[in-house]
Design goal:
The structure is a single chain. By secondary structure, the chain is α/β, with parallel strands linked by helices. The protein has one domain: Dihydrofolate Reductase, subunit A (3-Layer(aba) Sandwich). Helix content is about 20%, strand content about 25%. It has an 11-stranded mixed sheet. The relative contact order is 0.21.
């Protein structure tokens, strides 16, 4: 059972009205990962006009149902990752909650996914709450990051480049038995994975508000130009849920 029931309408596929969010997500399943690397999905929330931040964070863009949905998504993945910029701006809490942790354990899985924090050369606040808890954690830093060791319980991975290359990172995760990675931003991390064609699914909450600001979108502009500028990468609509005036959309990327 969920911590609190959130009623949704399923708009696609098989429309149904006034069902519990957990019930609507009961059949959620990931496709098989691509050959040679973990499957990668991005989970983001934006305003109607596509902005992913209010005063530098996603806080306030959507309501409590989106928070429950976020945990339900996480519970299906082997690892949940985010950039260090998000940690510095808003803190991170990449766990699934007690009820979903118990469900994962009953299925023979670790109670929480492996946490993955991705940094470049900027300092990492190692006193953050993200570094507490008993779930496995991996801190990935750039070659010249000045951090010398990670807090207890966290594996430190140092990339061969200034900024960890997503292809290199996925290879490292695959070596550790991780078959799926859920990215929760920020927009620059998402752009780095998109640049190399490494986003397989996209989970998008559209909050019922307008900002009209120049805040970042869910995927920042790709440095040096997008390989998809002239030939956009196609996607297939998998599902749409509605909670009040908010929409929860799932896309699968093609090719």
């Amino acid at each position: 059972m969920s911590d609190a029931a959130h009623r949704v309408d399923r708009l696609w596929p098989e429309p149904a009205a006034d069902i519990d969010l957990d019930e609507a997500m009961a059949g959620f399943a990931l496709p098989d990962p691509p050959a040679g690397r973990p499957l990668v999905a991005v989970n983001m929330v934006t305003s109607i006009d596509g902005r992913a931040q209010i005063k530098g964070t996603a806080e306030g863009l959507a309501g409590r149902a989106d928070r429950r949905l976020m945990r339900l998504y996480r519970a299906s993945f082997d690892a949940v990752g985010s950039g260090a910029g998000t940690l510095r701006a808003a803190g991170l809490w990449l766990r699934v909650g007690n009820d979903l942790a118990a469900r994962r354990a009953a299925a023979g899985r670790p109670p929480n996914p492996t946490g993955v924090l991705i940094a470049g050369s900027d300092p990492v606040p190692t006193d953050a709450d993200w570094f507490t808890g008993d779930e496995p954690r991996i801190l990935v830093v750039g070659r010249d990051n000045r951090i010398e060791s990670a807090p207890e319980g966290t594996e430190l991975l140092r990339a061969p480049d200034d900024r960890p290359d997503p292809r290199w990172l996925l290879a490292q995760l695959a070596e550790r038995g991780i078959g799926s990675l859920l990215l929760e931003g920020g927009p620059h991390i998402n752009a780095a994975f998109l640049e190399h064609g490494l986003i397989d699914e996209l989970y998008w909450t559209i909050g019922a508000n307008l900002l009209g600001t120049d805040a970042l979108q869910m995927i920042a502009p790709i440095a040096g130009g997008s390989p998809y500028a002239a030939e956009p990468r196609p996607a297939r609509l998998v599902s749409v849920l509605r909670h009040g005036d908010e929409l929860f959309v799932r896309y699968r990327l093609n090719g």
